Amino acid sequence: MSNRPGSAQSRNAWVNDYGNDGIRDEPDLVDSQYMGGNKNRNAANTSTVATKSTARGGGGGNCFASIGRGIRSIWATRQTEETTTNRELYVKTTLRELIIYIVFLIVICVITFGMTSTTMYYFTKVMSDLFLDTANTENGGTFRTLTSVEDFWRFSRGPLVDGLYWEKWYNNATMNPDEMGYIYYENKLLGVPRLRQIRVHSNSCQVHDDFENFINVCFDSYSDSIEDTEPFGEIQDTEYTAWRYQSEKALGGSSHWGLLNTYSGAGNMQDLQSNKSASLDILDYLYDKLWIRRGTRALFMDFTVYNANINLFCVVRLLVEFPATGGAIPSWTFRTVKLIRYVTIGDYFVLACEAIFCLFILYYGVEEIIEIKKHRFSYFKSVWNILDILVIIISVVCVAFNVYRTVEVGDKLQDLLKDPNKFADFEALSYWETRFCNAIAIATFLAWIKIFKYISFNKTMTQLSSTLGRCAKDLAGFFVMFIIIFLAFTQLGYLLFGSQVKDFSTFQNAFFTLFRIILGDFDFHQLETANRILGPIFFMLFVFFVFFVLINMFLAIINDTYSEVKSDMANQKNEFEIADYFKKGYAKMMDKLNFKRDKIVDIQKALQSADINNDKQLDFDEWRQDLKTRGYADGEIEAMFARYDVDGDRVLDEEEQRRMQADLFEQKAALNKEYDELEGKGRPGTGRRSSSRVSFDESGEESDDEGSGTKSSRTGRTTNGVSYEEFTVLSRRVDRMEHSIGSIVSKIDAVLVKLEAMEKAKLKRRETMGKILDSITESDGTSDEMKREQMEKLVREELERWDSETSVPQSARGASPSDSGSKNVRARSQNGNQSSEA
């Protein structure tokens, strides 16, 4: 008897339970193939019902709790959630973290690349070529080849002023006043250039007693303690500031790291003018009055240019150091920076990305606080967590400097506009802007490295980190040995060749020179020229011990560990493969579509074949009988029938059947569209998708070929294949299972043999006892003495047989309970004999 409802109300309720589309999907049936069946769904449904009932009874407290859980879920990570036991949660959390982090990475890359461009390089090259490689007309020297005080004055009164002041066009036509002040006609000179020198006072060093009568004054190398702060020269000339010392605070300067020393931002300074002739007059005056003297140790030339076409500043500093040995050593810095950040539409897009970046920093900051609160000190044991902290700290510093830079540049430009003939000091600001770019570049680098944290679920991606982590202790021990030998060679090279070879002139240069030798970049001829005996010996020893021994030891440690890691990974299953996850999701969608297709095919065939009496009226019994044979439950059959039985007479007339056919065709078209969309997103070359589409369109023919009788196409599901790695793991498991089963079978055989032996012994005992009883009951005139002897003989034979049967297991296992039992039996028999004799 069917479980159909008996009234219209019950039928409507049944339809509502099974959905309003008439043809209900069964996603749970498909999900159970991948997610562990109905157990998890039942647990989830139970928890959902419990949550709803609790919410109805708990009131506002549970409402706030649910809000708190929702807020906390925003910062859900693998470290804050219990993902070790829930594979599905682990997959979803990892993908969620990865997607959010990719967005963060895109934002930080947009910011980083929005601050720089290839134009910066060309701007720097143009300015450096102009001031470093332009030769003077007297001896053809350039700033790069500057070696003396005379060379400096030739450069300053020639290429320097010619490069700073462009007052004529390329055809020697004089420029208008508003056209002047542009270098290469495009780069505006901001303010006026500045000259500044740093001096040491006389008698700053100790003269040997033998030379005191010949050498009256002594000027040591520069240091802060011996810096000369006294006025000198033409101090009565108040028109020039070059003769009076000014502190670093008064000048608003900062220290500078030169080739020989680190110099303060103080000194004796002189600003030039905004035109060429006035600036030449100042330089001629300083030259005539010997502004550079024996105590001068460094001379700075600072100026700033701005190109409005590309919105870039180029802050230039030319430095000439005058060592205590005499001569001059030039150096320079050209910092091309973007101090005015927001001008074009692209700049404002970068500004929007910077705002998003700040939100990301806040988001990740809260996330790290939650993780630290949960894991305490164990949080800092992970390298990835330390990397997160570094990225956040660097990012916060960069955001703070970005705000400071914007405010400071605005103030400096306002001051410069008030007095165009004032020196524009952008040196310190450009220095920190460069450090800002370096910091954000490091943060971007670390952010890219952090991607390995989110792709660590793949065995191939973890080979590098696993190899380095496993050989870390060996590498640490090797590094100690390497650095001892390397520093020993560095000191030896510095002491042997430091006075003659430039690459070994300082300990730092010697250190990096030896690294270059390891990489094959060396000049053996210089070492041989410096010392024809020790030079080749030093080179051969270094190459042998460091290159052939230590470097190969390092590679051996890495290779050996890598082989171990690769072997271990070949024998273990992935924690989870992201590709398999997406494949599984794709297969899941295909199975759902196939399930819909099979159901539509079954209903179409039922409409054609269920009308047994051919009266064009399909009653419920005919409908139920046909679908029952196709594997449908009574509830599904009743729901589909009640959907189209409008009049409730339990019969589908022709109109109702046509309406069902029309709905089936609509659902078929929608299903075809879903197939097309899934094929567009799926992998190319997959035969399963096309076969699914063809089988749906030609359902009638295919169903006949698939099976005979009334077998439903629902039961003809395709199964997904397994990967090679899964097949290998399963093969190993089968091998182990076969071995275990073989061992179990052998043990069962041994038990059966023992049971058979026990059964035989039981039969023999029964036979012996029968003989004993027969000898007792027989009364053939035998004397009691004879009967007693026969009984003793039978008992003795039985005991000997028992001893022979138990000798083998006793020899293997030692004494057993049966042994003691036989002894007790023998003792009892002897006692019986003695009593009978008595």
From TrEMBL:
- Which cysteines pair up through disulfides? They are 205-218
In the bilayer, the protein is annotated as: Multi-pass membrane protein
The residues the record assigns to binding Ca(2+) are 645, 647, 649, 656
Q: Where is the composition biased (Acidic residues)?
A: 698-707
Keyword check for Signal: no
Q: Please list where the region (Disordered) is annotated.
A: 36-57, 675-719, 797-838
Q: Where are the transmembrane segments?
A: 98-123, 340-363, 383-404, 436-455, 475-497, 533-558
Q: What is its subcellular localisation?
A: Cell projection, Cilium membrane; Cytoplasmic vesicle
Q: Which residues form the EF-hand domain?
A: 598-633
Q: Which PANTHER family match?
A: AT14535P-RELATED, POLYCYSTIN FAMILY MEMBER
Gene Ontology CC annotations of this record: ciliary membrane; cytoplasmic vesicle
Keyword match Lipid biosynthesis = no
Query: Which lineage?
Result: Eukaryota, Metazoa, Spiralia, Lophotrochozoa, Mollusca
SMART domains named in the record: EFh
Q: Which UniProt keywords apply?
A: Calcium, Calcium channel, Calcium transport, Cell membrane, Cell projection, Coiled coil, Cytoplasmic vesicle, Disulfide bond, Glycoprotein, Ion channel, Ion transport, Membrane, Metal-binding, Transmembrane, Transmembrane helix, Transport
Start-end of Polar residues biased regions? 39-54, 817-838
The family this protein is said to belong to: Belongs to the polycystin family.
Q: Identify the InterPro entries for this entry.
A: EF-hand-dom_pair, EF_Hand_1_Ca_BS, EF_hand_dom, PKD1_2_channel, PKD_2, Polycystin, Polycystin_dom, Volt_channel_dom_sf
Protein name as catalogued: EF-hand domain-containing protein
GO molecular function terms attached to this record:
calcium channel activity; calcium ion binding
User: Which GO BP terms apply?
Assistant: detection of mechanical stimulus
Composition bias type Low complexity, residue spans: 709-719
